[in-house]
Design goal:
- This protein is mainly β.
- It has a domain of 85 residues: Immunoglobulin-like (Sandwich).
- It is 8% helix and 40% strand.
- The strands form 2 sheets. Strands 1, 2, 5, 8 and 9 form a 5-stranded mixed beta sheet that branches. A 4-stranded antiparallel beta sheet has the order 4-3-6-7, with no helix packed on it.
- Strand 1 and strand 2 form a beta hairpin.
- The longest helix has 5 residues.
- The radius of gyration is 26 Å and the shape is elongated.
- It starts with a helix and ends in a 27-residue tail after the last strand.
């Protein structure tokens, strides 16, 4: 009992009940391959990730760090590093079946700069007198 009195914040700290997500994961309309990682992000920071099996991702528990809150925040997802079209508001204690779809073919690729050719000096021979 004396130990609990010394650390009252530890004794009273309770974790927030997470928002759970589960569902299918597709890339360009086809089931994501086994082992493809589905990640959940809040404010651009990954909070959890799991691997796809049989075209579905297992339960992702989206929860803030101890004593934090995601109330009013939007959860975004990636499939194999590609952004999913679907998002959801974080709701404490909610369980949401959310089928995720990513379409990397529709993403605008970053152009790769093409090197500019430069003139290469060449030596010319001159005849001796």
């Amino acid at each position: 009992m004396a130990v609990l009195l010394l650390f009252p914040s530890v004794a009273s700290a309770q974790r927030v009940i997470p928002h759970a997500f589960l569902g299918s994961a597709t890339i360009n309309g086809s089931p994501a391959a086994d082992g493809t990682v589905v990640a959940a992000m809040v404010d651009g920071r990954q909070v959890t990730a799991k691997s796809v099996s049989g075209g579905s991702y297992p339960v992702l528990l989206v929860e803030p760090e101890a004593l934090g809150s995601f109330v009013g925040k939007i959860v975004t997802f990636t499939i194999g590093g590609f952004p999913a079209a679907e998002t959801a508001f974080w709701i404490q204690g909610e369980v949401t079946e959310l089928n995720l779809n990513a379409s990397p073919a529709q993403m605008t690729p970053t152009p790769t700069p093409t090197p500019t050719p430069t003139a290469t000096p060449t030596a010319t021979a001159t005849a001796a007198p």
